[in-house]
């Protein structure tokens, strides 16, 4: 037999010897099986441990739960901050514009100015970034502007509440699901007009409801909101004259939403922006929607009223909420002009004292059609002949509005007392409206296009000439700086 074989067929002595060997074989065989079982069990435990590691480190960062609030450094935020004036909202047909702290309406803290498709409104939730971490979600209330003029898309306010466990809120986004959502692709809006320090949080609330009698100091007394420039608008001369007229009247800031301006006007806008009078907001609405050139869907078509005019006016109100005592809402070819005072401040001090509960002051519009006056040799017109646009100082004929038809007015508002506006009227406010008599203030409207003139209602009105000695040098200076003279 071969050595080491534990088999039968041998003598007694040999059997005895091999019996001992057989015992040794059985013992060692049993020991080998035990080691193999222990090794397999150990490898099984290692495999389970590795699987748990993979699950917790690979899958968890991709899913963020909002209820309960996410935990740990994996939930730091914001991820992608939008630096655009128009931000598409993921998984919807809507667009977000800007977010503001607004605690004037009970039960809400945040107002998001938006553009919503009216036939596709769905349930949405606010998610906040609080001190760098995600909050729990809160439901939203959607308030579509009632003046949508039949267009599919409309200016919309989205209102929501900040969760109680959210401190130092900085950004917000909207979700279509309350939990287990993917947030890594969400674009976040910075919250404007928010409290700037913990000490301030203890003592005041920004954008809170007031009675309009506060003695707060503002950066500007008056801000003018110019809704949208589009269609390569290039009326440089009228633009410069209007801005300088407003400067003399006491306006400290003019906010302009620019979709497309002509090359010369863009140069002038840059000059005014560098100086600080103009704040430019790029408004590429045509890259997202088919904006209408008109105000009525049934007549003009398109997706959105007048290049989003209502959206920009409402955004401008909230943009100016904390920094401007009054806001003027009008177009670039309009000037709200005091007729009994030399500036807007003295006029508004009088009106506010007489009407302390007024949140909005309605100004009657008067068209100044294209009428020339005789040009003297000392006029600056020869210098302006190469400048695109027309000279509003030549508009000296005023048409009284026809009382038998609707005559749209424009407005001076206290922004802290206004919640939502349309073009010619405030839709929601915390005060009253007052119609300003035309002998106190009128709106000088100098339209670019021809108007239907009513000869029986025309009057000579040279109010603009009262400012020409100061306006003309300022216009020349700004045109020179812009390389247009």
What's the number of extended β-strand segments? 24
Arithmetic mean pLDDT: 85
The structural class is alpha/beta
Helix proportion range? 25-40%
Low-confidence stretches: 1-10, 12-30, 56-74, 196-206, 208-212
Tell me what the CATH architecture of the largest domain is. Answer: Alpha-Beta Complex
Kindly report the CATH topology of the largest domain. Answer: Spore Coat Polysaccharide Biosynthesis Protein SpsA, Chain A
Task: Specify the CATH class of the largest domain.
Answer: Alpha Beta
Number of helices: 9
Biggest β-sheet strands, sense, barrel: 7 strands, mixed, barrel
Q: How much of the sequence is in beta strands?
A: 25-35%
Q: Which sequence of strands runs across the widest sheet? A: 3-4-8-7-5-9-10
What is the rounded distance between the termini? 120 Å
Rg (CA only): 36 Å
- Gross morphology is elongated
List the domain count as a whole number: 2
EC number: 2.4.1.-
Membrane topology: Single-pass membrane protein
Organism: Anabas testudineus
Protein name: Glycosyltransferase family 92 protein
